[in-house]
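Give me the fold.
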Amino acid sequence: MQIRSFIALPLPEETAVKFFEVAETFCNIEHFQQIRWLPPENCHLTLAFLGDVEEMRLERLARNLGQNLADKPVGTLHFCEVSPFPFNARPKVIAALAEATEWLKNLQSSCVKAARKSGIELDRRRFVPHVTLARMNGRKRNTSGLPPLFLKLKSLSKRWFSTKASFTLKVPNITSWKFSP
């Protein structure tokens, strides 16, 4: 049996709540109906998207992650804005963007190596650390009306994050998240 999977850093509840306080400020924005906010308990920073993976390989991955991450230092995540993502004409989500620090890039690289060592093939994508807060409703998406919304999002989020929201995450918080297709 295959399970749609990814490796992620779950966020502390207080951080998720802070992100959704930002989201509440967007509730009265024109085109808001085009956005579907995710519940705060789903907040996580994806380190590696694995796709559909056999359960046996996930068990191997858990062991390899334990070995690869055993001696990793504690690090800090810094979030600086809420923005449409990906950065193109048809963004799919609204995300809280994290700085790609050396600590975070090394952590992500260790997760990718553990996945490959477990026999899991990954797409080669540039790592853009982010937490998805909302999804754009594809059927209702009207790109001609969205740019002002996104400019407003960026403006509001820069004010909100003028002092960067940061917190410390310990490596044992890394988990392999699974969900059924």
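The two ends are 11 Å apart (CA to CA).
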